[in-house]
Amino acid sequence: MERFKSFDDRELAYLDAGEGEPVILLHGFAADHYTNWVATGVAGGLIDAQRRVIAPDARGHGASSKPHDPNAYANDAMVRDVQSLFDHLALDHADLVGYSMGSIVAARLAPREPRVRSLVLGGVGGEWGGQQRPLDTVPIADALETDDPEDIKNPLAAAFRSFADRTGADRFALAAIQRSRQGETTDVGAISVPTLILAGDTDQLAGSTEELARRIPGATFRTLRGNHLSAVGDPQFSQSIVTFVNSMT
């Protein structure tokens, strides 16, 4: 892992491996670059396909800085982190791949960053990305901060807490991220680069890939086997990403 200082001097860690056209991989909430991209074979598949893989640990995650103040994540800090990584590595273009939280960051970045050449949005679907009522993140933050997981009544919040405990994540940094996102919306209709959407067929958190693809101009979609956590283990997850980003070269 290498390190750099982002726009606000927070230190972030990232993997930089392989040679060829660059692909930036943005992982999901409570995961890290290894869990989402290395262990699933995505990074290796891209490297074997002669691509340069750049996979940061988002702020609050992995080997990167983990502030406990929600203000450290506000005002699209993670989006600006990726722009800072482009600058740090002097990239004039890259294909951008996200999963879950990483897809939200990617979708918010692409309309404002001309260096993004294409998008893969994993673990998202349905009606996400418009002016609908955004996810209520306060129960998730509360669940992450509570001492006793048995006290958590909200099923979604309990699932996030369980995953954070399994990955050994910093729960208080994750809670700060959730508090900073309250009320956030994303306009996926503003995306203009080639886009592929991937999600599992039993991913109730994401919803329909086809439905989201209809809302992004020119987007294509593929439904994988699995739920929000297990879909990344479908061999078609890695293969779909490699095939799509290589079609951009």
Architecture blueprint of SSEs:
Layout: E1 2-5, E2 11-17, E3 21-26, H1 33-38, H2 42-48, E4 51-56, H3 77-88, E5 94-99, H4 101-109, E6 116-122, H5 138-145, H6 155-167, H7 171-180, E7 195-200, H8 209-213, E8 220-224, H9 235-246
Parallel strand pairs: 3-4, 3-5, 5-6, 6-7, 7-8
Antiparallel strand pairs: 1-2, 2-4
Which structural category fits the helices and strands?
Answer: alpha/beta
Order of helices and strands: EEEHHEHEHEHHHEHEH
Number of strands: 8
Q: Provide the helix percentage.
A: 25-40%
Instruction: Supply the number of helical segments.
Output: 9
Cα-atom radius of gyration: 17 Å
Main sheet: which strands, in order across?
A: 1-2-4-3-5-6-7-8
Uncertain runs are: none
What fraction of the residues are assigned to beta strands by DSSP? 15-25%
State the distance separating the first and last CA atoms.
27 Å
Q: Could you tell me the mean pLDDT?
A: 93
Main sheet summary: 8 strands, mixed
Query: Which overall shape is indicated by the principal axes computed on the Cα atoms?
Result: globular
Can you put this structure into words, describing what you see?
This protein has 249 residues and is an alpha/beta fold. 33% of the residues lie in helices and 19% in strands. It has nine helices and eight strands. An eight-stranded mixed beta sheet has the order 1-2-4-3-5-6-7-8, with helices on both faces. Helix 4 links the parallel strand 5 (94-99) and strand 6. The longest helix is centred in the middle third of the chain and has 13 residues, at 155-167. It starts with a strand and ends with a helix. The mean pLDDT is 93.
